[in-house]
């Protein structure tokens, strides 16, 4: 979840940590303040969030390292002390005098009668809230043991944790844990939202993400170019009303290919999702053993297990992969579909087992209007790297995937990424309840339906991902995350697409 204290486009832009460090002083100068003023505003914003989210907290534990992040922590401590809170400040090196603005903040704390103690694990359980100001955005190597021990103690506790700018131990650009990482309940990030905070494990580590521009956001935006953009449902106008004189052919002819023996459910989900997303006609080409299971209970789906060439010629867009398998039948179907889409320049969504088959034949096809929808494991196979590699730098590997295959890559997971070789977008919606069988098949059907209705590949990928994720959020809000199944999304998608 992301809150923002700035209602401008900046709250949807992502900036690398080095961009913030290199430009924040100039942004401050252009905004009529200095860096220490920014530190004061940062500490004030953190305390304000603590007051708002943990209103009854009277005992604060501030954990400090040595850099500017520690300076923000000292200012937070001052704000809490002035508000009458009981404040414990513990530093990794309690006797060390800090330099620069952090040193000024440290001196102000001491001058106000505050003390600086070595870390005491017992204080965590006595505190109502822990402020994590151990490590900032500058760290990019594995953390030292003295920090790791404190982070372990924080994570072993049930006391709420608020991280300053970034959870300590998290790479702010990639979202990778650097050996140990604070699992925060809230993270208050400043000046620019860092990409590692909104996808993969980083999204989990941040908890609730709060953005504060510290009064320099507009100036900063003129100095730095965003590395990616956050998307939510409000960025899209929806499909709009249909023409009175339109007919089913107006809204596309989508062919969904998959459903090998024993996996009929996957292609059925994709096909029905496409119908619920507004496709005019949906035909399913499936294994002969799956035709009854696919068509049963959904007569609006046209189902066939023969004459693939005729089905391809009929279609205006293709989805291939859900339940496809990787046997001889699958390979022959895959080859026929991709050859057709290449020769006819036809839009295609490649998902699931079709991605695994694509790995083996990637040099054989050039597809101009193509969306790939891998999870981390499938992306790893497409690129010849491990799952851990992909999850350690999702932005990098989403871009590599889109570039290698000259396609739009939808890298699924927490904070799904959409990359078109030139730009990257991150979906703000979605929840762990969607980690269930068939959810990806529904997404493929949605994407295919949008492309069949004439949306460009880029727009269809962005809108489709957001629709799918927001539908999951709407269902979770109604019934909870546990027990959500893929077909639950149909009605929610239909409602959203008609807004």
From TrEMBL:
Q: Where is the YjeF C-terminal domain?
A: 231-499
Q: Which Pfam families does the UniProt record give?
A: Carb_kinase, YjeF_N
Which species is this record about?
A: Alteromonas naphthalenivorans
What are the YjeF N-terminal domain coordinates in residue numbering? 20-222
Co-factor note (free text): Binds 1 potassium ion per subunit.
What residues does (6S)-NADPHX bind to? Answer: 136-142, 165, 266, 323, 375, 441
Arranged from A to Z, the UniProt key words for this protein are: ATP-binding, Isomerase, Kinase, Lyase, Metal-binding, Multifunctional enzyme, NAD, NADP, Nucleotide-binding, Potassium, Transferase
Chain residues that bind AMP: 412-416, 440
The GO biological-process annotations, alphabetized, read as:
metabolite repair; nicotinamide nucleotide metabolic process
Q: Which reaction does it catalyse?
A: (6S)-NADHX + ADP = AMP + phosphate + NADH + H(+); (6S)-NADPHX + ADP = AMP + phosphate + NADPH + H(+); (6R)-NADPHX = (6S)-NADPHX; (6R)-NADHX = (6S)-NADHX
Instruction: Tell me the superkingdom of the source.
Output: Bacteria
Give the family this protein belongs to, as stated in its UniProt record. In the N-terminal section; belongs to the NnrE/AIBP family.
Assembly information from the UniProt record: Homotetramer.
Can you name this protein?
A: Bifunctional NAD(P)H-hydrate repair enzyme
Per the UniProt entry, the Enzyme Commission number(s) are 4.2.1.136, 5.1.99.6
Xref: PANTHER family: ATP-DEPENDENT (S)-NAD(P)H-HYDRATE DEHYDRATASE, ATP-DEPENDENT (S)-NAD(P)H-HYDRATE DEHYDRATASE FAMILY MEMBER
Asked if the Swiss-Prot or TrEMBL record annotates the protein with the keyword Metal-binding, the reply is yes
What's this chain's function? Catalyzes the epimerization of the S- and R-forms of NAD(P)HX, a damaged form of NAD(P)H that is a result of enzymatic or heat-dependent hydration. This is a prerequisite for the S-specific NAD(P)H-hydrate dehydratase to allow the repair of both epimers of NAD(P)HX. Bifunctional enzyme that catalyzes the epimerization of the S- and R-forms of NAD(P)HX and the dehydration of the S-form of NAD(P)HX at the expense of ADP, which is converted to AMP. This allows the repair of both epimers of NAD(P)HX, a damaged form of NAD(P)H that is a result of enzymatic or heat-dependent hydration.
Identify the cofactor(s).
Answer: Mg(2+); K(+)
Q: Which GO terms describe its molecular function?
A: ADP-dependent NAD(P)H-hydrate dehydratase activity; ATP binding; kinase activity; metal ion binding; NAD(P)HX epimerase activity
Q: Which residues bind K(+)?
A: 69, 132, 168
């Amino acid at each position: 979840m992301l809150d923002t204290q700035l209602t401008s486009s900046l709250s949807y832009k992502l900036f690398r940590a080095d961009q913030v460090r290199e430009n924040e002083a100039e942004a401050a100068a252009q905004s009529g303040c200095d860096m220490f003023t920014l530190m004061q505003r940062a500490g004030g914003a953190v305390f304000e969030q603590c007051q708002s989210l943990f209103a009854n907290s009277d005992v604060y534990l501030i954990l400090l390292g040595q850099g500017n992040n520690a300076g923000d922590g000292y200012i937070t401590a001052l704000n809490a002390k002035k508000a009458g809170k009981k404040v414990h400040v513990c530093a990794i090196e309690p006797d060390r005098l800090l330099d620069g603005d952090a040193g000024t903040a440290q001196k102000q704390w001491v001058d106000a009668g505050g003390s600086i103690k070595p870390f005491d694990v017992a204080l965590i359980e006595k505190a109502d809230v822990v402020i994590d100001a151990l490590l900032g955005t500058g760290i990019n190597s594995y953390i030292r043991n003295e920090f790791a021990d404190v982070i372990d103690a924080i994570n072993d506790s049930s006391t709420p944790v608020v991280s300053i700018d970034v959870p300590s131990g998290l790479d702010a650009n990639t979202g990778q844990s650097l050996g140990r990482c604070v699992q925060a309940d809230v993270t208050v990030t400043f000046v620019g939202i860092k990409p590692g905070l909104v996808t993969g494990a980083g999204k989990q580590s941040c908890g609730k993400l709060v953005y504060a521009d510290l009064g320099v956001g507009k100036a900063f935006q003129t100095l730095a170019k965003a590395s990616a953009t956050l998307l939510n449902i409000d960025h899209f106008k929806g499909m709009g009303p249909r023409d009175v004189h339109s007919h089913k052919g107006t809204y596309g002819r989508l062919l969904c290919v998959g459903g090998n023996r024993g996996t009929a459910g996957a292609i059925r989900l994709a096909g029905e999702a496409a119908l619920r997303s507004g496709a005019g006609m949906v035909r399913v080409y499936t294994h002969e053993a799956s035709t009854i299971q696919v068509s049963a209970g959904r007569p609006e789906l046209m189902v066939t297990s023969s004459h693939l060439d005729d089905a391809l010629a009929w279609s205006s867009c293709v989805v291939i992969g859900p339940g496809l398998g990787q046997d001889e039948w699958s390979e022959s179907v895959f080859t026929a579909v991709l050859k057709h889409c290449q020769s006819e320049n036809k839009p295609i969504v490649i998902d699931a087992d079709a991605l695994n088959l694509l790995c083996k034949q990637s040099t054989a096809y050039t597809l101009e209007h193509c969306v790939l929808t891998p999870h981390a494991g499938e992306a790893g196979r497409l690129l010849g790297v491990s799952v851990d590699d992909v999850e350690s730098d999702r932005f990098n590997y989403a871009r590599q995937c889109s570039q290698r295959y000259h396609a739009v890559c939808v890298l699924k997971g927490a904070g799904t990424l959409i990359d078109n070789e030139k730009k990257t977008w991150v979906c703000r919606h979605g929840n762990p309840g969607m980690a269930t069988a068939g959810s990806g098949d529904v997404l493929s059907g949605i994407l295919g339906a949008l492309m069949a209705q004439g949306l460009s590949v880029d727009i269809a990928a962005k809108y489709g991902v957001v629709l799918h994720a927001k539908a999951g959020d709407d269902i979770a809000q109604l019934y909870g995350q546990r027990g959500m199944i893929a077909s639950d999304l149909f009605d929610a998608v239909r409602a959203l697409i008609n807004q």
